[in-house]
Amino acid sequence: MRFFKDAAFEFIEKRQKAYVVSAVVLAIGIGAMLFNVFSIGNWMNYGVDFTGGTVIQIQTEPGVTDADLREALGGPQAPSVTRFGADDEFIIRAPVVADMETDQVAAEIRQLLAAAPGIGEFEVVRTEIVGPVIGAELQQQAALAILFSFLLTLLYIAFRFEFRFGLASIAATLHDILVTLGFLALFRIEISLPTVAAVLTIIGYSLNDTIVVFDRIRENLNKKGGRREDPVTLIDRSINEVLPRTVMTSGTTLVVLLSLLVLGGAVIRDFTIVLILGVVIGTYSSIFVASPALLEIQRRWEKKEKKADRKKPGTRARDKRAIPV
Length: 325
Fold this sequence. Notes:
Layout: H1 15-39, H2 48-51, E1 53-60, H3 66-73, E2 80-83, E3 89-95, H4 102-115, E4 122-130, H5 132-160, H6 163-186, H7 193-222, H8 231-263, H9 269-311
Antiparallel strand pairs: 1-3, 1-4, 2-3
């Protein structure tokens, strides 16, 4: 059984509508970031890993849940509590509190847990303090990791295909990252190291799907008569030919991620949500962002080459097209 075996959708013809959808989503995300700057002081909801704070690992009696610990520490506004390792071990992440030293924050957490009914005996396995300087350094390292991924993507695509393909893939990947960050800002999902890992995973997934589409475009382009074919028709046909593979890959990946979202618990919930969003956005961008971007870049590139050839005396316009226009 093969889904979309004889697909003939006109994706490129609908690129203007896709541009509008992407622009609206990006505007909402950027607006959410600006709103966060004025409301919480940061454009994203950074966790303890990036802002500094106190990390406490405790071991409780059997039967105590992370929800019990959150209730003991103050309900919905309590520090982050996640299960760690065994069923009776938990990690408590408390942010920096104004006018309080980090050791005072740790002592208050111990007092709240000791006084709370239903918690019982517990043991503090370790206490770590993440300073603001370390948090700022982690922010810089996360930004550099994403930047280097862009550069390596451009170099790889340029080597594997052409430089113009690399620019189109960067445009699609940048679109995916901005949409994801806008989603994180809109719903104020905590930015932690696992969240950054999810964002980097999205880059890899989006790149993989884009390469599949670009590879088919190159194959059809190199076939007999491919360079004389209408570029919109050629790209549409290429996307439709790999559509069954795209649907199956994205569908099976989403099944696994949805299972993790339901059964994985709070520890990996944010990580899973970001990955689910990334799979959806990555599939969308490889069709409605990367391919149209390749077409637009090639058309502009072609015009510049023709102008340059006309200025040279005694020369004819040369056909250097990767995609005919």
